[in-house]
Amino acid sequence: MLFPEENKQNTNRHASFFPVENPFCEVKMTMINFRRTGGVVGRELSVELDLGSIPGLAAQRLQGLLTEANFFEIPDVGNLMSRPDEYEYVITVVAGNSIRTIHVTDSSMPEPIRPLVEELTQLAQAMT
Predict the structure, then answer these.
(1) Cα 92 from Cα 89, distance rounded (Å)
(2) What is the pLDDT of residues 56-87, one digit of tens each?
């Protein structure tokens, strides 16, 4: 099952991800485009998600990760140079009238977005 948390009884475990002032909760549509390239094998992994069309708890989890990461405020990584065999990530988020694309590698990734990248990687792997 792609979104296993939908079957869990305890729905309150995600409640802390959604403060009232969360701008993503007010947005009618949030799209996430995720692509991972590189690595030892060099296989590309990607997924495009419309949070309005995936199960509620999964969409809320992703919105919470975007909010926790402060995605639209993450500074641009200057000279993006990847090390041999490390992954490169491109994440684009469209939330209402706001669009933001970030390019990071395993070694240049700001810590606040690491949980989001891990979640998107798992979703992309589950969809392939």
Answers:
(1) 10
(2) 899 999 999 999 999 999 887 766 677 878 99
